[in-house]
Amino acid sequence: MTTMAGTIAGEVLFGINGIFTVLAGGCRLRCRIKGKVLATDVRAYNPIAPGDRVVVLPDPLSPHEGKITAVLPRRTCLARWNKKGRAPQVIAANADIAICVTSPESPPFRPRFVDRLIVAAEAGGLTPAIVLNKCDLGADPAVLDRLARYEGMGYRVLRCSALSREGIGGLQDLLGGMTTVFVGQSGVGKSSILNTLEPRLGLRVGWISDKHDRGSHTTIVSALFTLSTGARIIDTPGVRELELADMPPGDVAFHFREFAPHSVRCGYQPCLHAGEPGCAVAEAARGGEIHPDRYESYRRILAELRESGRHVNG
Question: Which terminus of the chain is more solvent-facing, meaning fewer CB atoms within 10 Å of its CB: N or C?
Answer without folding.
Answer: N
